[in-house]
Every structure is written in C-alpha cells, then in structure tokens.
Amino acid sequence: MKVTVDETLCSGCGVCEEVAPDVFTMNDAGVVEVKINPVPADLEQATQEAADGCPSGAIIIEA
Ligand code: SF4
Question: For ligand 1, which residues put their CB under 6 angstroms from it?
C-alpha cells in the first residue's frame, strides 16, 4: 500500500507515530513524515490502524 499524510489536516497529535512508529515520525516542526513508502506488507496492518485512529483523517491510504 501507499500512504500519504495531508499536512493541512494533521494536528501533530502523534497518535500515528505511537501506533506505527516504523511508518510515521514527527519531524522537528511537529509535522508527521512518512518514513517508508510504499508500506511493506508486514507494516500494513499498523498503518491501517494509524489511519483509523487519526483524529483528523489526515492519513490517506491507497491500495
Ligand atoms: S494521527 Fe493524524 S493528526 Fe495525529 S499526528 Fe498522525 S497524521 Fe497527524
């Protein structure tokens, strides 16, 4: 899967980094960056959980 973060929606809450630290990281500006894209199969479930848990709906997953 491919994943992107809409920075205009992201509030910087850090939930995605907690759920999937191998995929998402907070940069120095408090904005999430995607570390690995496309997401390998073994990280897809955590990535989906992060997207589901994002309170801003900022994580966009493409199959
Ligand atoms: S969970 Fe969503 S709003 Fe929170 S830091 Fe991650 S992308 Fe941003």
Answer: 5, 10-16, 32, 54-56, 58-59
CA angle 5/6/7 to nearest 5° reads 100
Whole-structure pTM value: 0.94
The count of domains in the chain is: 1
- Which structural domain, as residue segments, surrounds residue 40? 2-62
Ligand 1: residue of 6, 7, 10 to mutate (most ligand atoms within 8 A of CB) is 10
**Domain harbouring 40, CATH code:** 3.30.70.20
Banded model confidence at residue 61, pLDDT cuts 50, 70, 90: very high
